[in-house]
Amino acid sequence: MGNSSSKQITSHDRAILDMKLQRDKIKQYQKRIQAVLDREHEIAKECLRKGDKARARLALRRKKYQEQLLEKADKQLEILEELTATVEFSLMERDVFYGLQQGNAALKEIHKEMSLEAVEKLMDETAEGIAYQREIDALLGSCLTNDDEDEVEDELAAMEAEQLPAPPTTDPAQKAETVEEIKARRAKERTEARKKQLEEARSSRQMIPA
Fold it and tell me: pLDDT exceeding 90 applies to what percent of the chain?
């Protein structure tokens, strides 16, 4: 006779196991992708030293996107862990398993970003490398919000300030900009540029005949 008292694995048990597996993977990915993030930071510095601000910005934008992927996956797991800890798990089972599917999809996206070879392409001067950089730049444009772009610009400004030479005079009128002054100036420029884009878009719509 079979052992009828053996414990059956419930959907709740499966959800908890899947979450633990996702949590372990995120921890593994965090360690592996850190090397990628560090390299992108160094590439941004190298590009700034060469006067290539556009490529430095691209490296920081890619870094920002990857950091967000990790953060998103981590928050998703926190929410699922809270759901499975409630006594109403059976009422939320569909939401939990949908969340697990999203978590797995997020992990796949993170896995794609862990290649150091892809990072080195940001420094590639060949036609293939430049085409890759343009493709990444366009893709990031649909992934990053204005706030994300502002944070990238602030990081770029801080990096620039670190590389500025010491001012040759103690005259306050000729002192170099501080990091905060650079950030404020850049923020104003971005706000004006976005306002101009909105006005141009509005004008274009008005010119279209009814």
Answer: 18
